[in-house]
């Protein structure tokens, strides 16, 4: 089934998804005229190629992502350092569960690819299970490990024939995305699947 994704603030960059691939990229009016039977998903904001998070090892192997049931005791943000190590070593399933929650939080920030050398089976399984791409790490890192690093690293442009991997942010333009950060994400698509949908 063909799905056409269009955003209010970027109708000139709509995407037509067929399976796991981008079938076409272009102005919404042209794509809908050429494919009138495609299912249409309308989003607020802008559609982008999605983000590369350069902190794969730091966020998925060295940080502990609290379970929502632990929020009253541990909060909701990733934990680092000695406290994280103690929680990750608490039991055989702790690393895998934390890595899966970490990947889900990355998806909620428009991440479609991660960088850095992942060494643990738990992190690799979580990344592969979600369909995230593995990419090379930038020569310089933007700052401390974060789900919304600054500056944001956008992937190369969208084009027909490429994997259907993109994100939608509820901002009026890219300048606002840079200013407001990746927490403005409302949808993330990986391999043609809607893997995160916000408000």
Key structural traits:
2 domains; about 200 residues; four-stranded antiparallel sheet; Urease, subunit C, domain 1; 11 strands; alpha/beta
Folded structure, characterized:
- By secondary structure, the chain is α/β, with parallel strands linked by helices.
- It has 2 domains: 2-50 and 156-197, Urease, subunit C, domain 1, CATH 2.30.40.10; 53-135, no CATH class.
- It has helices at 28-34, 56-60, 71-74, 81-88, 94-107, 121-130, 174-180, and strands at 2-7, 14-18, 21-26, 39-43, 46-48, 51-53, 111-115, 133-135, 166-169, 185-190, 193-197.
- The strands form 3 sheets. A 4-stranded mixed sheet has the order 3-2-1-4.
- The protein starts with a strand and ends with a strand.
- The model has no long low-confidence stretch (mean pLDDT 94).
